[in-house]
Amino acid sequence: MKGLIIMTNKEFAEFLLPGVKHTWQEYEEMYPERDLKEGAIVTRFAPSPTGFVHIGALLVSFIAQRFSKQTDGVFFLRIEDTDTERSIENGVQKIIRDLNDFGIEFDEGMTSDTTEKGKYGPYKQSERKDIYWAYAKKLIEEDLAYPSFATKEELDTIRETQEKSKQRIGYYGRWAKDRFIPKEEAVERIKNGEKFVIRLKSPGDFYKTIVVNDLIKGKIEMPENDIDEVIIKNDGLPTYHFAHAIDDHLMHTTHVIRGDEWVSSTNKHIQFFNVLGFKVPKYAHIAPFVKVDESTGNKRKLSKRKDPEAAVSFYHEKGVPVEAVMIYLATVANSNFEAWFDCNKDAKIEDFKFEFKKIGSSGGALFDLDKLMNISKNYLSKLTKDEIYDRVLNYSKEFDTEFYDLLVKYEDYRIQYQILLNKYEDYSKSIFNIEREQKKPRKDYATYADAKKQIWYMYDELFDKYFENYDFVKITDKEEIKNIINTYIDEYYDENDDKDTWFNKIKELSEKLGYAGNMKEYKENPDAFKGNVADVSTVIRVALTSSSMTPDLYELLRLMGKDRIKERFSKLN
Ligand code: GLU
After folding, report:
1. Closest atom, ligand 1, to C-alpha of 44
2. For 299-347, how does the pLDDT look when each residue is reduced to its tens digit (9 = 90+)?
3. Which of 9, 96, 278, 284 could cross-link to 215 by cystine, CB 3.0-4.6 Å?
4. Paired residues of 356 in beta bridges
5. Ligand 1 pocket: which of 44, 45, 48, 216 to mutate (most atoms <8 Å of CB)?
6. Which helix or strand (DSSP H or E) is residue 25 part of?
7. Number of helices followed by number of strands (H, E) in the chain
8. Are the C-beta atoms of residues 253 and 281 closer than 8 Å to each other?
């Protein structure tokens, strides 16, 4: 027999994961308890740096943020980048920007791809390798982890055999052969260059049940985990399951609030907390957004690939106000939010106290874009003219330079282009103010982009460029149209008229040309007239704007002024 050197577990751990800077005991000391008041919720948002934020993830982060804020807790951003294939360049930056756009700010965590704030970092998993190794060594020393050499081919064979014989899939129990490799043999194989991972030696029994008390879903029963999960991959980085348990322990996360795709892994996670000797956090799993698939008629998850509205950047690009998105998410988050918000018109989302038990527990919320757009219309209708102007200006600066150039403030314009041109700031504000700043404002913009779509004709530059055709509704005879608009501008238009006088004049004009000025009279005897006052004003409206659907005509005429009205009408002559 060759003189085999008997190795202790400690030596074995050091051989497998050499050169760790600190022991796990030192790390425990480096990340002390947080000094927070009783009941403070410490939670996190923990995306992979894919650069993409799903609306469902925004919901999760919003809920997490609310609970931490409500309890004077801590909300941090941890980047889970151990799966290098899912990482993209500047992915962290993109995620932070998208989240910040929606008012999701963090007390601690990554602030860009390279910088961070807070005392419990690093907040990027790829920079915490030493920490994971320290705890992996702890498990190896305690005989709760071991090196595994199983190749992809061997694992495939195990799976195929399990499938054929209708057994549970996975590396567990008698399938987990590498559990039984003696340390000395493992050392030899590694010295010979064989690749290995570190696996948990799961102490779980599949035939025993664990109960997870999910704060949203209630009691969930699941079998204990008996699979020997990989904890350190052969690139030296940990798996998510292992890493998040260590991170949440050291960062003192009290609540793991996350998407419910993780529910089925919770038995593994709790097992990690237990074998590592950590206190298990509370779990709250949030159901995903679903929608009815147009082709199948069945409900399915809102998909990054198929549904543009799944990306939060969609709302930014379309110009849906952040506030509307957040109000919508709040209505989804807690079933009683909407009624509360309706009764407390001036309240802010932050004034509402969210409760876990009011979060929908099953099936997933149907994503209702129409509802979101209605919330948005309502929200935008309540802004003052100055507010809506600023927001449309800001939006256009990024997404519609043509409109921006028309709206831009004198000062901005001068600074940017050194051109002393005063574009239409006041004029634009007056247009935006039509049927605004009143008790029941007009709700015609669902997005900032809608502003241009609704009132483009008020700018001659846009009218000349985009005019397509006139949408005359009832009176379509060219001569009759000319007669109405020419008589109106020549004989009845006066820019000093107040609204009543203006309307009386439209009535007079109608009567003069054989239309009923009085709707009651018209209804009683429609055959006695060519039409009525509404038909006449529609002609004026369409001749002015090309559209039959506009805000208040009196205001449009007043803002255009006689010369421009004449100019518009002349296009029909
Ligand atoms: N990195 C995981 C994800 O992107 C996080 C899950 C969690 O919050 O624990 O889904």
Report:
1. 8
2. 999 999 999 999 999 999 999 999 999 999 999 999 999 999 999 988 9
3. 284
4. none
5. 48
6. helix 24-30
7. 24, 13
8. yes
